[in-house]
Design brief:
11 strands; about 120 residues; mainly beta
Length: about 120
Amino acid sequence: QLQASGGGLVQAGGSLRLSCAASERTVSSYGMGWFRQAPGKEREFVASINWNGGSRYYADSVKGRFTVSRDNAKNTVYLQMNSLKPEDTALYYCAEGQYGYDRRMFDYWGQGTQVTVSS
């Protein structure tokens, strides 16, 4: 299972750090991704990282503000979100699969953690 946590309510310009911890499985050999879904919108790609953290890819909307990282010893992936904007408000999901940006490349999904950014 993938357990996402760290969401919450924050003012615009603030920061949050999301975590995605894997239990009952080892994710160190897989790419990991973060996606988000706002009400009434489709789930969209946010960031992904390859198995050893050597490659990272970001959506244009978060580039320069968000940083994805991983600690394979802890079986955990992180998403550091800085300079948050109201349009970042969404339910954030972590996923395990291949390194990429297409959600069809990811096979296992966490339950999501809510991020709300107030203006």
